[in-house]
Amino acid sequence: MFRFARAAVNLSGQTARQVRHGSTAPQDFHAKYGNSILLGGFVFCTAVWSYVLTQTGITWNLSPVGKIMPKQWREPEE
Predict the structure, then answer these.
(1) Which residue, 26, 24, 6, is CA-closest to 15?
(2) What is the pLDDT confidence band of residue 46, given thresholds at 50, 70 and 90?
(3) Per-residue pLDDT, 42
(4) Which of 30, 41, 47, 57 could connect to 34 by a Cys-Cys bridge, CB 3.0–4.6 Å?
């Protein structure tokens, strides 16, 4: 049991060191791919919203201000 506990502590220490030092991934990932991922996300988002706005036929319930005229009020007839 003691060997198992010591191995578990050793593994958790290695994991903590990896997290503290920025994992094992290369540190220049954002410098290499950051702008292209951002641009790709922008293009994807624009394409999806363009499709939604033009092709789906959704009624967007825009404001009726200026489109609906109130009825003229009339005096009650006697």
Answers:
(1) 24
(2) very high
(3) 97
(4) 30
| Amino acid identity for residue 44 in this structure | F
50 touches 44 (CB < 8 A): no
For the chain, give the percent of residues with pLDDT over 90.
23
**Which two three-digit tokens encode residue 71?**
């009825």
CA–CA separation, 50 and 25 (whole Å): 36
Nearest Cα to 51, choosing from 61, 43, 40, 63?
A: 43
Q: How many residues does the chain have?
A: 78
DSSP 57: -
**Residue 43, pLDDT score:** 98
| DSSP-based three-state secondary structure for 60 | coil
